């Protein structure tokens, strides 16, 4: 047989497979109706394992691995299709449907907002970008920002979550598991770091540089060129600038912003000292009550997965079957666990889409830990 003849045979087989796939999915939909009537779960691990064993025996050892991969994918697609027919009823579904109906059409231009740090912090600039006229309340820690929103001291909170040069703000990710909140907006700020000193200070005078650990990481290249200078992390870049301004020392400098130089009467000794000119930090805006504003097209969740082969693959397949584009996947170890991880997912999706909503409710009812974070717009 020549190449064209072989391809013709493959095309014929593909046509048969397509027709059989269509029939199989039609039967899966019928099974979904029966399961809904009898209140049976969609997943049936025992039956799936029996099918995989049978398939392995049929294809033989040379093709067993590939056949299992194909059928595991088929099971994922079939379960997703069945779930789309079930319209799973759950407390989360009711809360989301209510939020979709009752969230105002327009995002507020002014509100009480919690930020970590002091005046001049990057979180303040992010809040001003999100709201326009925020009434900013400053707190010492990220944990305090979450708590202020939970207790109703502030309507919203703004927190950094990741940087394009230095990665995620790990502490904020860890706090996400501990607090009840919802993401209502996100934004990105271009970050340019400056070396700030008291007027008249030269680089040769400096023995210590202070800043937030993220800023220090983002300026690692510059700091590496100063091996004899002590590097000290502090709570916030604005706090670093304030500390230098209030200090009686002339040998201390801060990595902070141009706005903080003006705010605290400092001099810019070195400009743009970050690793990359394309240095952005992403901030999230959180609220206590679930809000889903019109046009929300970013969806974030956290999910633990079984500690066994292909767990992550099966989860990603669920998104793929709906045509959902994952834009971020981050794993974080669960404190106190034996090599268990919590996965953070960002995706381009809207809960107005009934199939996406069904999938989120499916995750909610799974035995693993699931946290819905929010459906929102990035501005």
Brief characterization of the structure:
By secondary structure, the protein is an alpha/beta fold. It is 43% helix and 24% strand. The relative contact order is 0.13.
Beta strands, count? 15
Query: Class of the largest domain, according to the CATH hierarchy?
Result: Alpha Beta
Radius of gyration: 26 Å
Mean pLDDT comes to 90
Termini separation comes to: 58 Å
- Could you state the CATH homologous superfamily of the largest domain? ACT domain
Shape: elongated
How many H/I helices? 13
Task: Please supply descriptive tags for the structure shown above.
ten-stranded mixed sheet, Alpha-Beta Plaits, five-stranded mixed sheet, D-Maltodextrin-Binding Protein, domain 2, single chain, 4 domains, 15 strands, 24% strand, 379 residues, alpha/beta, Chorismate Mutase Domain, subunit A, 13 helices
What is the fold's blueprint, element by element?
Blueprint: H1 3-38, H2 45-59, H3 61-86, H4 91-102, E1 112-116, H5 122-131, E2 135-139, H6 142-150, E3 156-163, E4 167-168, H7 170-176, E5 182-190, E6 194-197, E7 208-211, H8 213-218, H9 220-224, E8 230-233, H10 237-246, E9 252-256, H11 258-263, E10 267-270, E11 280-287, E12 298-304, H12 311-321, E13 325-333, E14 341-348, H13 354-364, E15 370-378
Parallel strand pairs: 1-2, 1-3, 5-15, 7-8, 7-9
Antiparallel strand pairs: 3-4, 3-11, 5-11, 6-9, 6-10, 12-14, 12-15, 13-14
Helix pairs in contact: 1-3, 2-3, 3-12, 3-13
Give a structural overview.
The chain is built from 13 helices and 15 strands. The protein is α/β, with parallel strands linked by helices. The protein has 4 domains: 3-86, Chorismate Mutase Domain, subunit A (Up-down Bundle), CATH 1.20.59; 87-103 and 295-379, ACT domain (Alpha-Beta Plaits, 2-Layer Sandwich); 105-191 and 279-291, Periplasmic binding protein-like II (D-Maltodextrin-Binding Protein, domain 2), CATH 3.40.190.10; 195-270, D-Maltodextrin-Binding Protein, domain 2 (3-Layer(aba) Sandwich), CATH 3.40.190. A hairpin with a 7-residue loop joins strand 13 and strand 14 (341-348). The radius of gyration is 26 Å and the shape is elongated.
């Amino acid at each position: 047989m020549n190449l064209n003849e072989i391809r013709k045979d493959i095309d014929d087989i593909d046509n048969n497979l397509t027709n059989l796939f269509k029939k199989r999915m039609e039967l899966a939909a019928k099974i979904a109706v029966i399961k809904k009537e009898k209140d049976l779960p969609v997943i049936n691990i025992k039956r799936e394992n029996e099918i995989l064993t049978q398939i392995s025996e049929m294809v033989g050892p040379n093709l067993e691995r590939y056949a299992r991969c194909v059928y595991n994918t088929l099971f994922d697609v079939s379960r997703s299709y069945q779930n789309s027919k079930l319209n799973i009823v759950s407390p989360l579904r009711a809360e989301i449907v209510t939020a979709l109906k009752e969230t105002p059409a327009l995002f507020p231009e002014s509100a009480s907002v919690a930020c970590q740090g002091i005046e001049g912090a990057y979180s303040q600039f992010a809040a001003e970008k999100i709201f326009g006229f925020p009434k900013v309340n400053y707190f010492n820690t990220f944990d305090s920002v979450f708590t202020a929103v939970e207790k109703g001291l502030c309507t919203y909170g703004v927190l950094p979550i990741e940087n394009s040069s230095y990665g995620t703000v790990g502490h904020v990710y860890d706090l996400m598991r501990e607090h009840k909140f919802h993401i209502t907006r996100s934004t990105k700020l271009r970050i340019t770091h400056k070396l700030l000193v008291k007027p008249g200070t030269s680089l040769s005078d400096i023995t210590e540089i202070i800043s937030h650990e993220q800023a220090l990481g983002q300026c690692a290249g510059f700091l590496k060129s100063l091996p004899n200078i002590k590097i000290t992390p502090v709570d916030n870049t604005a706090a670093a600038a304030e500390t230098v301004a209030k200090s009686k020392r002339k040998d201390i400098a801060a990595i902070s912003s141009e706005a903080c130089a003006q705010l605290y009467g400092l001099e810019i000794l070195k400009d743009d000292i970050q690793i990359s000119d394309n240095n952005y930090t992403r901030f999230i805006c959180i609220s206590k009550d679930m809000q889903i504003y019109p046009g929300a097209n970013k969806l974030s969740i956290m999910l633990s997965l079984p500690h066994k082969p292909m767990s992550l693959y099966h989860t990603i397949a669920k998104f793929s079957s709906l045509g959902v584009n994952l834009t971020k996947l981050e794993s974080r170890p669960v404190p106190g666990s034996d090599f268990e991880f919590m996965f953070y997912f960002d995706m381009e999706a809207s809960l107005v889409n009934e199939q996406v909503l069904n999938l989120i409710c499916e995750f909610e009812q799974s035995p693993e830990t699931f946290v819905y974070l929010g459906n929102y717009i990035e501005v």
